[in-house]
């Protein structure tokens, strides 16, 4: 069987994070490695998506060219994937010449076949910047949820996909000006004409697709499909290859999926059989936000073109959250791969393991550093690492590192039980990988290590070695064969670890069909010296990561701080009604059984009075005695926790919620009026 496996093209306007890895690249990598190990003809294709408006906006903001932006992130992304052992056969990019030609020719063929409709419509135009405002070049209030800063194509708050003209109070992201409407011509793919095809192909023909994917497709199709513009007024992208289309490029979502085809072309002159031969199985790995593009739009494009195969499956994952919050690039709430690699050197497999064991296959899941630590210490180290280490160390101790000769007729029932479990686990891993259930498949692989661990723990060769040397030979022979099983079974999931195990047992062969066998290592075969597979991850290491996240978030909030809108105007007389004075704090203590409240005695110049203030999380009582503050003295007294508060101390609230006193620059008399 021949397989073309694609992983969603990461967008080259930022580095990649664990959410990308968990949702797309690791599952696709497991699938590709598994099929290769089974001897299948596999291409695993990916590359950077380098067109589209977010890139040109970022370039304008930084005063560099779009090419500078994509060069920077393409390099970072490609490097991080390589270091994580993501085994792409090619990692290309959509700014390549091959892609320009391929996507251009694709468009031209559809144009010549009259698959598009041409339509002149009114779109937003910024006359100061002299440009049309496509997609993210326009922001405004979301008509669905009233959130500010919705984009011309989407509201990130409520997730609605929008048309720019629906936005309330639209603004140009370039100049901030109110845009005008101007006529422009574009080409549309009439998706409504593909409804019958999509109904039959997906709703009837692919009921086996994951429920989240099938369900989303169904709701799109049931809602009725609309013609979709496949061009934009922009100067960054693949130019529309027809006359009269100056200043227009292909819509990024038209050219990006063609990137899979271009990358395959770059890889091999034999590319057509991976895209056009009906014996090829095409599988798209994506995140749930890309379902409509890979299940509706791209298939409609392929169908219109006429010579391509359609995807066999699109196993989209849900999202991976981080420490209870949605991963967000703009809020810097993420674990970036290139940073992880620095903080956890040579521990790629730990992250691969934690992300797969907790993969968001059927619902959004949460990555926590505590879970990451537990997975390493309690599973990888305590089970897999411990077992392999014992098997290799004891073999060196008892037999000079050579596989001992067993006496098969003396195998016990327990031995046979262990041996018999292996082929069943192999079948179970296969079933789960082929059904895109990678979490379950990993559990099965881990079950082999658990079995080995249990086997040694119960047979205790280190006790028997003085009394029953023959029995120990059988035990160690079986333990080493289990180790050899692990060196193959973990190859799709933890490639670095599988490679290390093969190195330890001096086995070069990589073959899925070895799993389940108990004669992989022959009698007398020499092992290499023992080495540990995993090291303990300490509390301080994970705490440092949590601290780093919080710090990044706070810094980001500060940088992105936006003042709240101004309140309604008030009359001068209303202002004069407030009597604000400078006072000095004389005493301060925490209000018992509360987290936030301080009871403060203030000399206001008028009197000494008690004020209850919600600042206990921001100031220690002993640190504020003697400080001058501003106090609203004619606020009606009110009781808080049984204490009468006579006034209010004025505070400034920072973007992260920190409260700070508002006080005179130099010491003034208590009772001085503030106005
Ligand atoms: Zn909204």
Give the SSE layout.
Layout: E1 2-7, H1 18-37, E2 41-48, H2 53-62, H3 66-83, E3 90-93, H4 97-112, E4 117-126, E5 131-132, E6 138-141, E7 150-151, E8 168-172, E9 180-189, H5 195-204, H6 211-222, E10 228-229, E11 231-233, E12 248-250, H7 252-267, H8 272-276, E13 280-285, H9 291-305, E14 320-322, H10 337-343, H11 348-357, E15 365-367, H12 369-399, H13 413-434, H14 438-459, H15 461-464, H16 469-489, H17 495-504, H18 539-559, H19 572-576, E16 580-590, E17 598-603, E18 608-613, H20 621-624, E19 628-632, E20 638-640, E21 643-645, E22 648-649, E23 651-653, E24 659-661, E25 673-674
Parallel strand pairs: 1-2, 1-13, 2-3, 14-15
Antiparallel strand pairs: 4-5, 4-9, 6-7, 6-8, 9-10, 11-12, 16-17, 16-19, 16-25, 17-18, 19-22, 20-21, 23-24
Helix pairs in contact: 2-3, 4-7, 5-6, 6-9, 7-9, 11-12, 12-14, 12-16, 12-18, 13-14, 13-16, 14-16, 16-17
The chain binds zinc ion.
The site of zinc ion has 9 residues, from loops.
Textual characterization of the structure:
The protein is α+β, with helices and mostly antiparallel strands and 675 residues long. 41% of the residues lie in helices and 17% in strands. It is built from 20 helices and 25 strands. The strands form 8 sheets. Strands 16, 17, 18, 19, 22 and 25 form a 6-stranded antiparallel β-sheet that branches. Strands 3-2-1-13 form a 4-stranded parallel β-sheet, sandwiched between helices. A 4-stranded antiparallel β-sheet has the order 5-4-9-10, with no helix packed on it. A hairpin with a 7-residue loop joins strand 16 and strand 17 (598-603). Helix 12 crosses helix 14 (438-459). The longest helix has 31 residues, at 369-399. The model has no long low-confidence stretch (mean pLDDT 95). It binds zinc ion (ZN). The site of zinc ion (ZN) has 9 residues, from loops.
